[in-house]
């Protein structure tokens, strides 16, 4: 198989997300799959083995949930992939769709929680306000919560008597507080650990009448599990000596926790017994676990992959849970770990080398979004495509990334964008010194926050990069703030210490448009016409400034947000990026298919 056929086959290979299951009907599950070429929702009856496609939408479906009784599948319908819309539901066994909350205005989804009693809690954001409504079939929506600062429903108890809400009322959306209320709106309890220490609600115990709520706190400079009874106020912190960031999920009987530990770009699973405090390791292959969930029989299902091996849904009992339709994705190359001393401490990065050619290689620095996410040893068709094209791929977990403790994640103070890029430059310097990367053929690229860093890097580090590729970037923070979705405005305020009007100097200092005159290298920009996260107007302003100063640039637009849920569109975007990088790194162009 030729290189181009190989990387396209990885995109086209059928993939599924980890199935979720109904708490009171564990044989009923839903999952998302790209089997048709578009990411859609599927129902799976484990007892009969029957699966069926639930949603059929041209731009795909990103959000879905199954109610605890297994009777209803809920899914979010936006307009042409713009992440603005309403919730619908359909019987698990099939039937007509019905609007979940007639009369409730559309908004940006902030979460959906369902009880076993038919009560739904719906979080939406629109027109500068974050709301949570309670909805029962056949009844008008009841406003439970409303605030100008970001808030979303975390979970609802099985009996519908307690609702957990994460909120940023204390002015720091990045470190939310956690409140539990009754359907009447009465506050039962609240956890707020102060500045820089968020409390994130995960879920109530999956047992009828059990008030305990599982959450994550940051009291010891990383996220760790906490079990909290909001009625009595009793708290139990779960501490592990092992390094890494922690998340957790209840076992079905409420007697144990499944703990997912992420350390240096790899994942590990543990069971924690709440009665005895015993921690047991669950054996999993070396790589990354995107999601995991315990089953009633006690085993754990998880979605696993590594940089070299395609995703698979496994079980801790040794079985493959769900086989994807069609041929599997071709494997790729493993990653190497890099540790580089940077201006703010040791930086962890991942390197993928091409299997052909000789060092120094042309290199692409793929910068992750977020910024509070991080790159991992996970299978990526995008990374594999660049490797097959002959590029070394470098992914840097710069300051601002999650996975390395709260201090590293929260380091973006006063110099947003420039801090991250100083770490990227340190890794680039090391790879050039080692003879891995060709300094004349290094490309900077990224999506969303990574796209923002790409444009900022082209303007502030113009001598480092041969070309730049920015997908759905922030090009002007002030204009972006004016047009973007409410949750992104809240994030901007938390990151910059206020709105664009309150902190104009900070917004300008971190905006790529401020440095357009210093750009030397050609730039490719990919933009979603319906994107509410990185709106089109601010990109158009940046492109106009590029043209005004005679800077070489290309623009690719598509009618969705971010990376699109349509496989063919993702392939088209990668082809455009590879062709652009080849041209400006002096590499042979792919043959014209015509």
Radius of gyration: 24 Å
Give helix % range: 10-25%
What structural class is derived from the secondary structure elements? alpha+beta
How many E strands?
36
Task: Indicate the overall shape.
Answer: globular
How is the main sheet built?
A: 8 strands, mixed
Summarize the structure.
This protein is an alpha+beta fold.
Write structural notes for this entry.
This protein has 594 residues and is of the alpha+beta class. It has ten helices and 36 strands. The strands form eight sheets. It has an eight-stranded mixed β-sheet with strand order 29-30-32-31-33-34-35-36, with helices on both faces. A four-stranded antiparallel β-sheet has the order 1-2-3-4, with no helix packed on it. Strands 5-6-7-8 form a four-stranded antiparallel β-sheet, with no helix packed on it. A hairpin with a 5-residue loop joins strand 15 (177-181) and strand 16. The radius of gyration is 24 Å and the shape is globular.
Write the layout of secondary structure elements.
Elements: H1 3-12, E1 20-22, E2 25-33, E3 40-45, E4 50-53, E5 64-66, E6 72-78, E7 85-91, E8 98-99, E9 108-114, E10 120-126, E11 129-135, E12 142-147, E13 151-156, E14 163-167, E15 177-181, E16 187-191, E17 200-204, E18 213-217, E19 224-228, E20 235-237, E21 245-250, E22 256-263, E23 266-273, E24 279-282, E25 288-294, E26 300-305, E27 312-315, E28 320-322, E29 336-342, E30 345-352, E31 361-367, H2 381-388, E32 392-397, H3 406-409, H4 418-433, E33 437-447, H5 449-460, E34 467-471, H6 477-483, H7 486-496, H8 504-509, E35 523-528, H9 536-548, E36 553-558, H10 567-584
Parallel strand pairs: 31-32, 31-33, 33-34, 34-35, 35-36
Antiparallel strand pairs: 1-2, 2-3, 3-4, 5-6, 6-7, 7-8, 9-10, 10-11, 11-12, 13-14, 14-15, 15-16, 17-18, 18-19, 19-20, 21-22, 22-23, 23-24, 25-26, 26-27, 27-28, 29-30, 30-32
Helix pairs in contact: 1-2
